[in-house]
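REQUEST ID: PR-0412
SUBMITTED BY: lab tech R.K.
PRIORITY: routine
TASK: structure prediction, single protein chain
INPUT:
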Amino acid sequence: MADAALAATQAIPFTIGAVLAERYELRALLGEGGMGAVFRAYDRELDEEIALKVLHADIASDVAALTRFRREVKLARRVTHRNVARTFDLGTHAGMRFLTMELIVGESLGARKARARLHLPDVLRIAAEIARGLSAAHVVGVVHRDLKPENVMLSDERVVLTDFGIARVADGSADVMRTGMIVGTPAYMAPEQLENGPIDGRTDVHALGTMLFELLANRLPFSGDTPISVAAQRLTGDAPDVRTVDATVPEHVAILVHEMLARRREDRPDAQGVLDRVEALRGNAASGGRGMSRLATLTMESVALLGQPRTVAIEPIAGELGPVLTSALVDAIAETRIARVVTGRDVADLAVHGTLHASGERVRARLRVVERTGTPAWAGHIDGTIANTLDFEDAVVAAVVEALRARTAADPGPRDPALRDVYDKAGVELSAFVLPRVRVAVTLLEEVEAKHPGDPRIRTRLARALQAVYGQTGARDRSVQARAEELALRALETEPALADAHNVIAQVRLADGELIAWLRAAQECLRYDPRCGGAHASIGSMLCESLHVREGLRRIELATRIEPESSYIAFSRMWAYGMLGDRDKVRAVLDAWAVRGGPLAPVVAMTRIAVWWRDLEMADRARTLITEAKAGASWDQAAIIMSSVIDGKMDPNAPTTFERLTSREVAPRQRVMMNEVAAEYFAIVNEPDLALKHVAASAALPMTNLLWLDACEPLSLVRNDPRFSEARAVVAARCADLWGSVGSWPNE
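STATUS: complete
OUTPUT:
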């Protein structure tokens, strides 16, 4: 860095430590480009670090360059979005022009992909964030024109577009500088840029498509000896299908990338269209089910479904074989007891429709299963021959029964019955909520998935197990979470209506702090299966956190009725009643949980309760269980907290321990929870400043826990501090944004 700084100061007459405009202290050189050098600088007036870009001295006298530099500021200031680096101001010092910008701490996408190949979920997440930033820029008429991996910064959870230095208003005029040189980086440029043709936002979409191809295939779509020869290919040939390079790329991902790389910009989607499709590929419904009233309706539907089989109406199938098929379906459904057959689709939860089409000896049955609301639940067709009517009948019955089983059974399991035993055994281990047993579930499912690849339910349960490992080991190893997400996405490719896979996606989004995407995915899960206890508990917990306690508790209790064995739901229930001060219910939950899963199963919940209530007996029991278990989980550290509860003294290593548990490597929502734990801990050992530090840190993350802020007893130590009030206001605004994004919600 010292050598780079020296080289920069030879071209620009400022040294590290210089103060520009009596305000900006240069602290380090970040890099140089064609327009100038970028420094990390300290803004003395605002007491914060910024990025400062200085125009090179050898072009400072160029009127055209100065005009372009000013345009950079004016254009960039139009775009205010979290996925675009903010531009602050333009200044002058000693005859030199400089630009002040938001300092983005992280690494470029180019540097990230050079280190290691990205997982598909990470590629899709980054693509969504880039498209979101581009869409915001395009709305105000700004086109980037030089989008490439080096101009995309990865900063903690943010993906940030930088260097709009050659962006311009998209007025359709020729995209050329006064010197006649094309503006942009040839490897990522759209054909219209190479031909000096009109541009618009779809020019950036082409560049993003090139980047996605490169991230997925580990190479650019076109190759050649020179950048110009690569660019020339783009003018004469279509981009290859990314699956010709990597056959594992999902079909719909490949189709989208191919459309983004269309030679004619009129054939490309715009940035918002790309965003919508990428979010759909990520399992996030872009629309549908808006409004909290829909959430309340789902709760009532779910209550009605509990304790009784779903009802099915079999509508008469017309044609010569129709009556036989209709009767066979009624008999098979009654025999398998997957649902109760009723007469009249207006009183049935599901209806089966069928039509027959014959051509000579060939016959085809077209079949549909439809919800009472008219929403299609399944559709398919079965081919057969008149000569083999029994085989044809069996095939039709099997297809419809399987479709109904997927819509009526709480967990239909894998399609292959031979896999059911290991699937069920893994489910028992997974429900224990203890890391060693969860690892057993992973091993079982990994083995069966390797031998029988492609079963969507095996993949989904393995994804759930990997998520549990990820959370219990501190939510640091992103590759584990990425694999869980990819397994769920692959499952949805095979079975788009698999509710549990949508719930996995919801939990991934929640872990990553994408709250609106989490809610959409959870709603999508409940659209396919209103009896998904995990989704109800997740939404219920968030409603409680946001002070919509009545509806939140109703959902959590509903989830308990649906999945009484679930440790995740038990924790949600314990947390809600613990915050509300209902000690009898909390103890009942913990006792039942221990009976069901063993004494270690509720130990994490016990550590929270021991702190909230200053319960010395529970703290001692939890400490003993954790110490003896040696589970290797992140919650092993809770033994330190339990000792402090018992002794009333702060452990000298506690500040360092919590710094590690809340570091940037940890997933956002896990960091929220660990900051909450830290705040509680420092409150009970009478360290108000440290407690407030962690309250503020949690509020700066995707936190929604107003109930904890208002009701957690140890926080009474700091609740009257103005810093606490500021943090609470931030969280309250975030809660309003979350529920406001899906509709209004009455105050309780």
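NOTES: Residues 359 and 587 are 68 Å apart (CA to CA).
REVIEWED BY: pending
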